[in-house]
Amino acid sequence: MLEYRIEIALWALSGVLPFIMFSLWSQNDVGNSFGLNDIGLARYFLSAFLVRQFSVVWVVFSFEEDSLSGRLSPYLLQPLHPLLRYVAAHLAEQATRLPFAIAIAITFFILNPSSFWLPSLPQLFLAYLSTHFAFTIAFLLQSLVAALCFWTEKSSALERLIFVPYLFLSGLLVPLSAFPSNVLKVAMLTPFPYLINFPAKILAGMPADIFNGFLAQILWISLLVPSVNLLWKLGVKRYTAMGA
Amino acid sequence: MQRYFKTIRLFWSTAFASQLEYQLNFLIELLAMLGTLLGSIFILSLFFTGGRQLGDWTWESALVIQGVYTFLDGLTNALLRPNLTEIVNYVREGTLDYVLLKPIDSQFWLSVKKFSFAGLPEIILGLIIVFWAAIQTGSSFSLYSLFVFIISLLIGFVILYSVWFLIAASSIWFVKTWNATEVLRALLAAGRYPISAYPVVLRFIFTLVLPVAFLTTFPAEAILGELKFNILFFGFILSSLFFIFSRFFWMFALKHYTSASS
Asked: Which of B22, B47, B189 sits opposite A20 (nearest CB)?
């Protein structure tokens, strides 16, 4: 991983979307209408950026490549679930991304000194925990799509169908408190708000329903784990070992 | 010249034939596109709650910008992304050698080889939104504003193409460019909103450094009949410079091409 430092720096940069949205919301004074002043907005979007850095998932792309090139066959023979291999790769890259994320956070504070804050230790711990849960949910969701690789060769195209609702409902572009209440109700029924909005609110020190948030995250995980398992088992039976 | 048109026709008809095999893909793209459009119009509407405006753009005129963005995004998905993200593979596998040996311009070959027909609905829908929203603002088109609109779209597309191609061409040195294109995509998403809605520093960057303004805001102003002639002229110069630079950069990159595994 350390070999590809530029790659990782670029990837950290590709998360700039929350900052672009922050500049728009604050420049146009929209924050007040959903109960956030400029400092609140700044903290929320920096937190959203950080949460995304440590919860972003690309397992479907690696898996599709391995599946099409036949590299998956030896993995399946090993006494280790192949998905764990991808989990390890993700965690390793998250660790290498930490210094870049800190550098971007420092730059952000230099540009917006008034927004500087340090979360308390319990806050930091809860945010860390909920970001890990967010990563788990995102990983399971994508594994579900990845398992479809066993049926169709181009399952990465299906990933777009998860990415689109993720983009708009996770809180990456706007804090969910800005949503009209009926849209918010529907959004909260999906796993997406728990991927960015919930951990980011904890990290930014905004009032968050911590108990229900964690409960929902755990519920989604306990729903997704058996589904992935089942789909995986069904899929492996159909596996035709392409390229082997 | 005729040879080039004939080549494009052959390329795209084979692309069409091969994509008929993946009809499900087409459906997925269509769904994803509709979802994206719905989502971005929803986010846009949040800026207008309580009768506000977005950087002195009204709701209808901001929709024109969404339309232009959708149109260019469609072109990106149909033409730029399938072709230019492939260059890195040619370099890595050494198959760029064969492209260079062909009796046709290599930049041309690499830029038009593929055409993804799943991008077509987005292109058409983008144009429908542009005209529908422009009619809603009450502006009446003249032949002149239509002409300026087409020119400014061309300017925008040439800039977009050049930036994409520059990144793709850098794969001669860097064997992975996927992340660089992701940065580009994130930055280009800024074009969903009028340039005047951004803070001054970003306005400057999005006009001169990474000219997002020329991609969406100025074409939208053109169809609304508000684009100043000197901006159009400046855009013409800027897009020519971008294109010439991409050309030179490609020539320069080829000098450094050492070919893999041969």
From this structure: B189
In the predicted structure, residue B258 carries a pLDDT above the cut 70: yes
In the block, tokens 């907005």 appear at A41
Nearest residue of B to residue A164, measured between CA atoms: B36
Handedness of CA A164, A169, A171, A174 (dihedral sign): positive
- The pLDDT value recorded for residue A2 is 57
SS3 state at A120 = coil
CA angle A140/A143/A146 to nearest 5° reads 165
Q: How far apart are CA B152 and CA B217, in angstroms?
A: 10
Interface probe, candidates B25, B40, B47, B185, chain A, greatest A C-beta count within 10 A: B47
CA quadruple B78, B84, B90, B92: dihedral positive or negative?
negative
CB contact under 8 A, A15 and B39: no
pTM (2 decimals)? Answer: 0.91
Q: How far apart are CA B52 and CA A30, in angstroms?
A: 8
How many interface pairs between A and B have CB atoms less than 8 angstroms apart? 85
Is B82 in the A-facing interface, judged by CB distances under 8 Å?
A: no
- Where b means 16+ CB within 10 Å and e means fewer, B165-185 reads bbbbbebbebeebebbbebbe
The ipTM assigned to this model is 0.88
| Residue A111 in tokens | 């540009």
Residue B261 has a pLDDT of 56
Q: Contact, B54 vs B72, CB < 8 A? A: no
Are A171 and A34 spatial neighbours (Cβ–Cβ below 8 Å)?
no
Say how far residue B210 (Cα) sits from the centre of its chain.
13
Q: Please check whether residue B183 touches A, CB under 8 A.
A: yes
What digits encode the pLDDT tens for the residues A150-188? 887 777 778 888 999 999 999 999 999 889 999 999 999
How confident is the model over B25-54, as pLDDT tens digits? 788 888 999 999 999 999 999 998 877 788
What is the structure's pLDDT at A121?
A: 93
Which residues in chain A are contacts of B50 at CB distance < 8 A?
33
Helix (H) or strand (E) run with residue A87 in it: helix A82-111
